[in-house]
TrEMBL record:
Domain of life per record: Eukaryota
Family per record: Belongs to the glutamate-gated ion channel (TC 1.A.10.1) family.
Membrane topology reported for the UniProt record: Multi-pass membrane protein
UniProt source species: Temnothorax curvispinosus
Name of the gene: LOC112465630
SUPFAM superfamilies assigned: Periplasmic binding protein-like II (SSF53850)
Localisation: Cell membrane
Domain Ionotropic glutamate receptor C-terminal: 164-328
Name of the protein described by the UniProt record: Probable glutamate receptor
Length: 375
C-alpha cells in the first residue's frame, strides 16, 4: 500500500504504511497474496485439454497421461503444486477463430471460453485471445517464417566468375603488354645481333599463342623465340601468380554453394515469384490468412496461392516433391525444429512474418493462476 496521508498530529504528510490501521490492512493483503502464491492444491483435479501435437504434447496410456515438451512442464507443475492432472484429448484442428462479437465457439479456445477446462498447454499469445483465456508466463518466443526446398541450378560460366571482371581486364592488359614486349625484344635483337638468314621471322600472333600457353601452365618457349632474361623471368613470374591464384580460388569456389533466395519477404513472394504458400490446417497461418486483410495476403488469397493442408507430412511432400509448381511452407520456427527434414531439407527464406510469445492458457478468473506462474 503506497502513498501518503495527512497527519493531524504531525501537521505533515506521512506514508500510509506508517498508520497502524493501514499497516495492518497492508499486512493482511500481503498474507492473502502469499497464501495464493504458495497454495497447495491437495490433489485437486485440474483439467488440461488439447489435441495431439507431436513433440510438444503426446498422449499415452489410454490418453490418461501426457509427455512431450509442454506435457512434461505440466507434469512437473502437478508434482510441485500437488494437484492431480487430468489430460483430455480432443479431436479438433486448432485453437479456433473469434466470432464477430469476439466470443469463441470452436476449437480449444471455445472449450476454455465455456469453462469446460482449466488449462491449454500451448498457445500463441495473440491479443484477441485474451477474451477467452489468460496467458501464463511465456515459455519461448516463436517466429513464423516461410520455408522452401532449395533449388539446385548449375552455372555454366562459373569458371569465368572466379575472378571479377576488373581482374580479368588487368590480366588481359598485362598479357598483351608482355607479349608485345617479347615481340619487340626479339625483333630488336634480330636486327642488331643476327643476320636475317640465321633467325626465323616470328609474328606477333605466335608470341600471343606461346605466351597464352605459358599463362595456362601448358606451354613451352621454342628456341627460335629469343627473349631477354628480364622479360622471360617477368613473364614466368606473372604466369605463376595467375596460375596459383586461379587454383586457390578454384578450390574455394568448388567447395561452396551459393544460395540466392527467390524472395526476401511475403510481399516479394507474391509480387515477384510464382510460389504458393501452404500452411497446416488449424495453425496460425491458416487462421491469419483467413482473417487478415493486408494487401499481399489479399492478393495471394485472390490468386488462390494460399493452400491449407491437413497434415505435416503432406505439406512436406508438396514442398519437396512437386516439379511443376513451387511451394513455400508457412510455419513456426518451433515446428520446423522439432519436425526436421521429413522428406527434404527446408531452409527459412525472407524475414519472419511475425514474432510471438508461446505460453500456456489458463481459464479466465482462475483463482490460483499466480501460483502456476510463480512455480
Amino acid at each position: 500500500m503506497n502513498g501518503v496521508i495527512w497527519s493531524k498530529t504531525r501537521k505533515t504528510f506521512v506514508p500510509i504504511s506508517s498508520v497502524p490501521i493501514y499497516a495492518r490492512m497492508q499486512q493482511e493483503r500481503l498474507r492473502q497474496n502469499r497464501a495464493l502464491e504458495i497454495h497447495n492444491f491437495q490433489l485437486q483435479n485440474l483439467t488440461l485439454t488439447s489435441f495431439q501435437e507431436p513433440h510438444f504434447l503426446q498422449f499415452y496410456d489410454n490418453n490418461t497421461k501426457i509427455t512431450g515438451l509442454c506435457g512434461e512442464i505440466w507434469n512437473l507443475l502437478s508434482e510441485s503444486l500437488n494437484f492431480t492432472l487430468q489430460p483430455v484429448k480432443v479431436n479438433i484442428d486448432g485453437m479456433g477463430m473469434p466470432e464477430e462479437d469476439l466470443t469463441y465457439k470452436h476449437g480449444l479456445l471455445g472449450i476454455i471460453f465455456r469453462n469446460e477446462t482449466v488449462a491449454i498447454p500451448k498457445i500463441e499469445t495473440f491479443r484477441p485471445r485474451l477474451a477467452a483465456v489468460d496467458f501464463s508466463i511465456p515459455l519461448w518466443i516463436n517466429r513464423n517464417q516461410l520455408y522452401i526446398h532449395r533449388e539446385m541450378i548449375y552455372d555454366n560460366i562459373w569458371m569465368v566468375k572466379i575472378f571479377s571482371w576488373e581482374i580479368w581486364c588487368i590480366i588481359l592488359i598485362m598479357y598483351i603488354l608482355l607479349s608485345l614486349c617479347t615481340f619487340l625484344t626479339q625483333n630488336i635483337r634480330k636486327n642488331i645481333l643476327w643476320s636475317k638468314d640465321k633467325c626465323k621471322n616470328v609474328s606477333f600472333n605466335e608470341h600471343l599463342f606461346h605466351n597464352f600457353g605459358n599463362l595456362c601452365n601448358q606451354g613451352y618457349t621454342p628456341k627460335h623465340l629469343k627473349k631477354s632474361r628480364i622479360l622471360e623471368v617477368s613473364l614466368s613470374f606473372f604466369c605463376s601468380i595467375i596460375y596459383m591464384s586461379f587454383s586457390a580460388l578454384l578450390f574455394i569456389y568448388v567447395t561452396k554453394s551459393i544460395f540466392v533466395p527467390p524472395f526476401d519477404s511475403f510481399e516479394s513472394l507474391v509480387a515477384n515469384t510464382k510460389y504458393s504458400v501452404i500452411s497446416l490446417k488449424g495453425s496460425t497461418g491458416d487462421i491469419g490468412f483467413k482473417i487478415l486483410n493486408l494487401e499481399p495476403i489479399v492478393q495471394a488469397r485472390t490468386a488462390k496461392r494460399l493452400i491449407i493442408i491437413p497434415t505435416i507430412e503432406d505439406m512436406h511432400k508438396m514442398a519437396c516433391s512437386s516439379k511443376k509448381k513451387k511451394y513455400a511452407i508457412f510455419q513456426g520456427e518451433d515446428m520446423h525444429k522439432v519436425n526436421g527434414a521429413i522428406i527434404c531439407h527446408l531452409i527459412n527464406t525472407g524475414k519472419p512474418l511475425s514474432k510471438i510469445w508461446v505460453a500456456s492458457g489458463i481459464v479466465k478468473n482462475f483463482k490460483y493462476k499466480r501460483t502456476i506462474d510463480l512455480e
